[in-house]
Amino acid sequence: MARLTFLGAVEGVTGSQYLLETARSRILLDCGLFQGRKEEEAGNEAPFEFDPQALDAVVLSHAHLDHSGRLPLLARGGFGGPVYMTRPTADLIEVLLHDAASLQERDVEWANRRRRRAGKPELAPLYTNEDVDLALELCVGLPYHAATAITEDVTLTFHDAGHILGSAIVQLVIHEDGRDKTLVFSGDLGNAQAALLRDPEYLQQADILLMESTYGDRNHKPMDETLQEFENVIEEASANGGNILIPSFAVGRTQELIYRLGELYQKGKLRHQAIYLDSPMAIAVTEIYHRYQYMYNHEDRAEIEHHTRKLKPAQRNLHSFLPILRYSITPEDSMALNKIDRGAIIIAGSGMCNGGRIRHHLKHNLWRRQSHVLFVGYQAIGTPGRALVDGATHLHVAGEDVVVNARIHTLGGFSAHAGQTQLLEWLNHFRTSRPELYLVHGEPEAKQALKRAAEDDGWQAHIPDKGTRLTF
Predict the structure, then answer these.
(1) Parallel, antiparallel, or unpaired: how do β-strands 325-327 and 275-278 relate?
(2) CA 84/CA 172 separation, integer angstroms
(3) What does pTM read for this prediction?
(4) Which of 81, 158, 296, 409 is the most buried (most CB within 10 A)?
(5) Across the 472 residues of the chain, what is the mean pLDDT of every consecutive 10-residue run?
(6) Phi, psi for residue 367 in degrees, rounded to 5
(7) 99 vs 154: CA distance, rounded Å
(8) d(CA 433, CA 407)
């Protein structure tokens, strides 16, 4: 009998981690960071609930840190086997993990300066860039739809999840006693209304099914309404001269925003003189997106190529689709933007405002009545972004308490996650095989709502706890 243990992303959205044990294999499915509240992030410091050296393989669904961010700890702990992922994911995690390590090293160095002066013991970062290099040496990139034997008794196939570049639905077939059993993990399923990427692929057969539930309690606005609201916010900011700050996730959301702004530019509806992408990581990721442009959906790829057709083929990409886009690479480039008090669109990380350069732009713009802050992604409980969305009147940011006079906008339709109806539609393609269904990756309310909706459709849905084990 195979055994699956739920180790993360069961009491919330982050920290994705599941341990699959068969008669001959031990496979870790995802190895993600816990993010959000301090008590949740404390889980990153805890030792793994298993011996990393005893694992045969790791499988990553995609590059986001809540699915990949503890991989350097695994390598430092002695794991030396292969880490399977799609080829774009292999490129993306190199950027994301090094960025995460650099931030940790920098933050700890600042903290240790104060601790040394106070005579307190010094802290250590969660992991270092050297740990990241150890982990990257283990990465194996696979194409979609290529069934690959990753251990003696387990075959892996990746299917397109449509969430970010390289995101995958994970299919693991366990060969045991002359018969096959199939475990499917949805990973993060994409929003079919989103730009650039293809729609999530449908599967039909599984014995055990793990499905995300981030937006299990609601649907997104229709994309045409979202785009109209997006255009209205930009028009309003143009009219009163205010800056627009867009906290954005470096992978996926930023590239969709560039595409949507490019659409407005190509239609003559963008009056701003320049748009600044102020995130070295987002810039690096955008260049990786250019490399895999052949993976875009047909319609959006054709739109980009049509409007850039006078350029050489290698130059027909998102950047040339939005020619007023400017990269702010260095800290000096970023600080120069703080002198702009009107008329700029600044896209900066992090998406939940709990790190990155966006904090300094908030410090310089939140108090201005003509400024606008546009949220285009999920804001986890306990983050500064969630506080602003929930109506905070003051925010402690970049060392200062700042009054919130700026207009705060939330456009849920840009989500890279499937909404409730899309989740149920994807789920119901398994109707003939009727796998055991386990809901993961969601706040309690979202999981409960999706459970009720699935049961209305005739499913028996389970919500596991951390440490839940099942055999199949």
Answers:
(1) parallel
(2) 12
(3) 0.92
(4) 158
(5) 96 94 97 85 92 98 97 97 98 96 93 95 96 98 98 98 97 95 98 95 98 95 92 86 90 95 93 89 96 96 96 94 96 93 90 89 94 86 90 92 94 88 97 94 96 97 97 96
(6) -80, -10
(7) 33
(8) 49
